[in-house]
Task: structure prediction
Amino acid sequence: MREITLDTPFGRLAGLRFGHGGAPVLALHGWLDNAASFLPLSSRLAGLDLVAIDLPGHGASAHLPPSADYTLVAAARAVLSVADALGWSRFSLLGHSMGGATSTLVAAAAPERIERMALIEALGGLVEAEDRTAIRLREAFAVHGEPAGARRRVFPDVATAVRARLQAGGLTELAARPIVERGLAPAPEGGFTWRSDARLTRPTAVRMTEGQMRDVIAAIECPVRLVHAVPAFRFFPAEARDGRAARLRDVELVGIEGGHHLHMELPDAVADAIGPFLHGER
Result:
């Protein structure tokens, strides 16, 4: 494993590179996570040129300028910029949660570049009902002028930050620690603070409807392996999951008993489900 930085139109983006010379795979983490979320899985995916990046505003990557919004479309463009910086014309995607939603858009927008796609706890992203479009827009604009880091929490040590992350739910302490350690920066007054962009917690101004999201999914051409938690996680309910998966041309679903961060807490089971697939086996 080694740290990498890549200069892109979205600023300098950081990441972790595991191995070199195998099939190229770009790994995309979930919301407010970072590249370290793939550490438990990486050692179980030998033989791949696996690059896990910190998406813009996350981990050690640059924040977007104040004039730019954090959206799935912006993240998808950033992913293609990362692939360009790596010199990859064609590659596979491995995405968890928001990273899986971003992967979905990349695969639909640039099908000629995506070999195959392994998704963990995501297929498409969060949607909004058509008759809530204006309400969502107003909620987003209401906080538009607030300073991004005005109320940043400061932690006296890493252990306290880990406990705070655990309060958000969905992770064990063992899984949370590497994400937290990569996600912290020294605070000017001492201690530590999150280095992710505080604007990531603001309301998204515009979301697709479910019909639009399913249209995007139907445009995906590559084979897809979808690993999901059993029972279903609240942000990825079974009905939406199965309805969306039905729009894919080539998909296999694998259910694993566990939580939303399956790849961190059950890396052996997830590697068994996606490893051969990412190597090109059926």
In short: Residues 8 and 84 are 9 Å apart (CA to CA).
